[in-house]
Amino acid sequence: MPDLTPLYHLVSLLPFDCLQARFMQQAMLALILLAPMAASMGVQVVSFRMAFFSDAISHSAFAGVALGLIFSVDPHLAMPLFGIGVGFGIMAVQRNSALSSDTIIGVFFSAVMAFGLAIVSRDNAVARDLQQFLYGDILTITESDIRWLLLLFAALTAFQIWGYNRLLYIGLNPVVARAHRIHVAFWQYLFAGLLALVVMFSVWAVGVLLVTAMLIVPAATARNLARTAGGMFWWSLAVSVTSAVAGLAISAQEWARTATGATVILVACGWFLVSAAFAFARGDKR
């Protein structure tokens, strides 16, 4: 097991008094890892017009957690496994159906929500345990969770380095991508699986209700500020990381005492308003 102490020490160097507590250092480290992952995937979610897809995955957390609690499986394991299954299911049906993507995702969204609520309705204790996942609580993250985040961060970095341009081709035109010998199905399934994992980890931070915002808002802000695909990627990372750091720091202040996840999203939305004003001043009507 890698020692995370050096990382905590780096986090403690940030100029915030609240970071002297270990649980706050863990929360900040988790957000610094999670925010750029959500932002990088969010750029592709916006490009592929898959915001509804991420919403369906996040709401499948209800069913995943409920199944885990009922069958005595760690919800932190049951939730991502169920999310990956839902993501692969949506992608498989989407690739082999004449129905529109929104229709297919809508069916899966309805199914996982109904399934989760049906399970929860059978046991009041399960319903109480789901509150944490509904609203998110990054302050309860453990060292074990952070190690999983580090592993996912490494995998996602390799994925973006290797597949970013391929995903751009697929987003523009899958037929053209195939003509350039890109294995479209492989990249679509890999993207769906990794997106499901990022969404499920994001549920811990901001909850089911706000997880889509963590993906979409930085990417939308970056689209207002950037003029190239590469610029959009880097702007999205900058917006997400600064929003995560500022959101956690603000939520810990005595005068604020707000939910961390909601505060992170509010800071990101502030970024979006600034970017929208900038785009308007620039005369950008994209």
UniProtKB/TrEMBL annotation:
Is Nuclease included in the keywords of this UniProt record?
Answer: no
Per UniProt, the keywords (alphabetical) are:
Membrane, Transmembrane, Transmembrane helix, Transport
Q: Name one Pfam family in it.
A: ABC-3
GO-annotated biological processes? response to zinc ion; transmembrane transport
Q: What is its main location?
A: membrane
Membrane-topology descriptor: Multi-pass membrane protein
Any one GO cellular component localisation term in the record = ATP-binding cassette (ABC) transporter complex
Family, according to the entry, reads as follows: Belongs to the ABC-3 integral membrane protein family.
What's the name of the protein?
Metal ABC transporter permease
